[in-house]
């Protein structure tokens, strides 16, 4: 009898081990080293993050883009620990917070089952997967409470799933797969211990991301390129000449230059009442069959792809029109102030001790989570209103971010956080214009102009050249400029 019990226990242990060997996950270890945007000539200290990646079709591994950002080294580790293999980032979308990783070691991925991706509905019980140190799968259930548009870590707003779940602290928890009925339905990207609320990158975004990447050419999530205001105010509706029988619609208050809406013929003052066959209400929402009312931006960004054409149903002076808009994505570098810069070094130019940089939100975020209050007020204002302030240029905002004390900058040490508009009479469209401008000093001096006090300063051109080596050695700068 004891012998039979022994064999039964051994059989159960074998089944358990067999199940663990076939988990649809791997551990992901990433060492990242971001650039320091306040000291643009150097990098910050490297950090290592551990996560659980979901294994998808083709042996690719899905994690958050936040995990993969500025990756210097990536490796996969077997779920139960032990074997490790190098990996690489194949595709990453920082806006949608998703990254697809791969390894060239086919043997490592052999036998690991692949997860399909499927949407969930409100009220579904979802399961968050974690791993114990011994590779045992830890499952924690919780209901999907809401699906709504929410600000993502880097830029913009997309759909999120929000669930209530009480997670246990474990290592490798930077990114966690969330499943429903044996299929991947989301990737955990944020968790609040106090409220037990978890925000997930949801299946619709994951499906869009994977479909876009399937042909080897990734285009990203498109936008329409307009800004709008809600139209609950009866006076605004009368001003826009909205007929009484029309109950929905939003007021178009901004059009991105050369964007899809602008090219389609949309104008400020139009009232958007529908997209394709979907009505837009007074708050800019549409009725989604699974999630209820969510913002109409979801139609463009997630229900369509770059290059798709959508019909914009508008009222102009009360008259109904239909515009055909071909959706596109605006790259971060196409903005006057980049919404983010990842996997790329910041541009800068040290002129005699003046540190010139291009304003980016990545630089502003260096001031911490409260950067809207702590970062230079002028730069925050320009970032917020860049579409209105710089509709006709420049390409980038050149900013004096700090002054390194040198013989060439005596008296200017307190001048900082100010926009540089011209050098030697040359209007600066970006830092790229600085070298050519410096070739033409005025009577032996470099004339540097700003858009506010002190308006103008002068640097002795010969002295600037003479102190270059001193500046580089004194402040241990690997280079005095980076323009690529």
How would you characterize the overall build of this protein?
By secondary structure, the chain is α+β, with helices and mostly antiparallel strands. The chain has three domains: 20-219, Thrombin, subunit H; 226-326, Pdz3 Domain (Roll); 336-482, N-terminal domain of MutM-like DNA repair proteins (Alpha-Beta Barrel). 19% of the residues lie in helices and 35% in strands. It contains 14 helices and 28 strands. The strands form five sheets. Strands 21, 22, 23, 24, 25, 26, 27 and 28 form an eight-stranded antiparallel sheet that branches. The radius of gyration is 27 Å and the shape is flat.
Q: Name the poorly predicted regions.
A: 1-21
Helical element count? 14
Largest sheet report: 8 strands, antiparallel
Q: Could you tell me the mean pLDDT? A: 93
The tally of strands reads 28
- CA gyration radius, whole angstroms: 27 Å
CATH domain class name of the largest domain? Mainly Beta
User: Could you estimate the helical fraction of the residues in percent?
Assistant: 10-25%
What structural class do the secondary elements suggest? alpha+beta
- Amount of beta strand: 35-45%
Shape: flat
Structural domains: how many:
3
CATH fold-level label of the largest domain: Thrombin, subunit H
CATH architecture title of the largest domain: Beta Barrel
State the separation between the terminal residues, measured CA to CA: 76 Å
């Amino acid at each position: 009898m004891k012998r039979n019990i022994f064999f039964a226990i051994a059989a159960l242990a074998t089944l358990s081990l067999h199940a663990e060997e076939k988990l649809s996950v791997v551990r992901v270890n990433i060492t990242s080293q971001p650039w320091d945007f306040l000291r643009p000539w150097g990098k910050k200290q490297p950090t290592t993050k551990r996560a659980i990646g979901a294994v998808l079709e083709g042996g690719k591994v899905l994690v958050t883009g936040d995990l993969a950002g500025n990756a210097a080294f990536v490796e996969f580790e077997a779920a139960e620990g032990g074997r490790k293999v190098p990996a690489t980032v194949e595709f990453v979308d920082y806006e949608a917070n998703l990254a697809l990783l791969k390894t060239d070691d086919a043997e490592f991925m052999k036998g690991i089952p692949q997860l399909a991706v499927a949407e969930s509905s409100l009220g579904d019980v979802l399961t968050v997967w974690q791993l114990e140190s011994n590779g045992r799968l830890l499952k924690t259930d919780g209901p999907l409470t809401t699906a709504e548009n929410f600000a993502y870590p880097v830029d913009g707003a997309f759909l999120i799933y929000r669930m209530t779940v009480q997670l246990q602290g474990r290592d490798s928890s930077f990114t966690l797969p969330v499943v429903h009925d044996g299929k991947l339905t989301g990737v955990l990207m944020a968790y609040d211990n106090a409220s037990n609320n978890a925000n997930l990158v949801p299946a619709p975004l994951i499906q869009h991301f994977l479909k876009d990447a399937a042909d080897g050419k990734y285009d990203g999530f498109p936008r329409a390129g307009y800004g709008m205001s809600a139209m609950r105010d009866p006076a605004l509706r009368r001003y826009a000449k909205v007929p009484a029988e029309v109950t929905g619609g939003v007021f178009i208050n901004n059009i991105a230059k050369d964007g899809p809406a602008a090219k389609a013929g949309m104008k400020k003052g139009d009232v958007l009442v529908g997209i394709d066959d979907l009505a837009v209400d007074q708050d800019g929402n549409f009725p989604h069959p699974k999630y209820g009312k969510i913002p109409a931006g979801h139609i463009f960004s997630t229900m369509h792809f770059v290059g798709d054409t959508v019909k914009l149903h508008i009222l102009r002076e009360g008259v109904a029109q239909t515009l055909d808009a071909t959706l596109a994505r605006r790259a971060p570098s196409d903005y006057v102030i980049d919404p983010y810069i990842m996997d790329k070094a910041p541009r800068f130019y040290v002129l005699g001790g003046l540190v010139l940089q291009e304003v980016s939100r990545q630089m502003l975020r260096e001031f911490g989570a409260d950067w809207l209050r702590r970062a230079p007020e002028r730069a925050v204002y320009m970032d917020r209103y860049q579409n209105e302030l710089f509709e006709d240029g420049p390409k980038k905002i050149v900013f004096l971010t700090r002054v390194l004390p040198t013989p060439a900058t005596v008296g200017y040490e307190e001048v900082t956080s100010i926009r540089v508009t011209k050098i030697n009479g040359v209007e600066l469209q970006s830092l790229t214009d600085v070298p050519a401008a410096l070739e033409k000093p005025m009577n032996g001096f470099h004339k540097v102009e700003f858009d506010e006090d002190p308006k103008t300063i002068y640097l002795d051109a010969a002295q600037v050249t003479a102190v270059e080596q001193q500046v580089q050695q004194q402040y241990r700068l690997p280079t005095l400029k980076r323009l690529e």
